[in-house]
Amino acid sequence: MRTLISDVTVRGRSDLSVVIDGSRISWIGPTGQAPSADQTIDLSGSLLLPAFVDAHVHATATGLSLAGLDLHGTRSLPDALDRIGAHADANPGQLVFGTGWDETTWPERRAPTRVELDAASRGAPAYLARVDVHSAVVSTALLDRCPEAQHTSGFDAGGHLRLEAHHVLRRAAQEAISPGQRRAAQRTTRSRAATLGIAAIHEMAGPDISGREDLESLLYLAQSEPGPEVLGYWGELGETDIVAELGLAGAGGDLFCDGAFGSHTAALHEPYQDATHTSGNLYFTDEHIADHLRQATRARQQAGFHCIGDAAIDQIARAFEIVAAEFGDLAVRHCRHRLEHLEMPSGPALTTFGRLGVVASVQPAFDAAWGGLGRMYAARLGAKRAEGLNPLAGFAASGITIAFGSDAPVTAIDPWGAIAAAVGHRTPASRVSVGQAMVAATVGGWRAQRHPDPAVGRIEVGAPAHLAAWATDEPLPDLVAALVDGADQPPCALTVVGGQIIYGVQDQ
Fold first, then answer.
1. pTM of the prediction?
2. Which residues of 118-152 are buried (b: 16+ CB within 10 A; e: fewer)?
3. pLDDT tens-digit profile of 480-495?
4. CB 364 within 8 A of CB 421
5. Would you state the pLDDT for residue 507?
6. Per the CATH hierarchy, to which homologous superfamily does domain 2-51+460-504 belong?
7. Is the CATH code 3.10.310.70 the one for domain 60-175?
8. Class of the 235-448 domain?
């Protein structure tokens, strides 16, 4: 099948056309000189760009949030409880599964109690993850299914659980999701991504975040139904065989080396400003991390780690130096290991990661949501430490490959929002250019996955046809500048993955 996309702006030139032959771009040139095609799609006045890649997604949880109980943006504790109650009334007796509440934005400045959640959920089992998904409030009905959680770290009789207690209850909540609910949620996530010009999502799976059954379901769905590609990762310490078994991209992703700032579980060198009794939590020893990195490097697989606080990041940097000393820098660079979030790196750690070819899989929306004076980062860490978080320009200066993601459902799947947040970072010294942001939102995701084709993510002859068209005649720099200032995003007119239209206009 040969498809002609006509009359679009490409790389700043208007009135161009692009021909897709099979799965690749075969011709780019003036519309009047375009070769014949089996179908023509007239997108006059549209901007054609490489399709986006979201490099960090939790598809089932995102779909459940999109289609069900979403507590993002609730204005107060009563507002959240009202929303929970309405959901429970509409789904009597069913598991109440949601995410997105953030007590730092509420006047009450506290999480719901178990008693309050019991009332709001009408006695049903309920699991409601905090916005960072590193702690949750649970109801008595769900807690009764897992009495062993009372004897684990992070248990709170009031119902706000962290650490291992949270992991136990999250697994219980996931087990209560039916296969049909899971498939519907995964379809919802892929469908939403397609409408946003996304060609691929990186699914961050693992035993504590989703489970193998959930990952296999998503991979099967992606193979059997049109939509964005799904590139799977499995985050379990020492488990590298599953990469070959399931054809995954890597042995990492959300392999939690620490937690998150919002839940006071990201591992710090110095205590939290608003919780001076704790510096967060390291989940593994240095040797645990070095062993996992060693196994993956020996197998030439990509390893990855979730790391947010400076203590966790420095711990990982030490492990990289240990493994590089054993295998050599080139062997480590060949694997293109990746780090998720990487919010609070030290200068020496960035030097290590840059030298060893590490990928920074980052979420600019975190800074937009929590950065700046008077917001969560500053409340947890103090203004001085908060100012150094998510140093995107520092990553670029260190030669680190940057890939943008959302960590959905933590923040929304929103590639234009990520670009605007990166270009308009709340700390001016951490901002990147429009070009750097676009590369991180497109090419970066393919590089992070170690795609073998150097042309992937680009609009050039011979490149894989991963494209998105946007209904705007604004030049890209002007469009992004307007988005930084709060303008509405342009609607997506077309999303193409590997030459196949997955969203937008059909034959004309």
1. 0.95
2. bbbbbebbbbbbbbbbbbbbbbebbbebbeebeeb
3. 999 999 999 999 999 9
4. yes
5. 39
6. Urease, subunit C, domain 1 (2.30.40.10)
7. yes
8. alpha beta
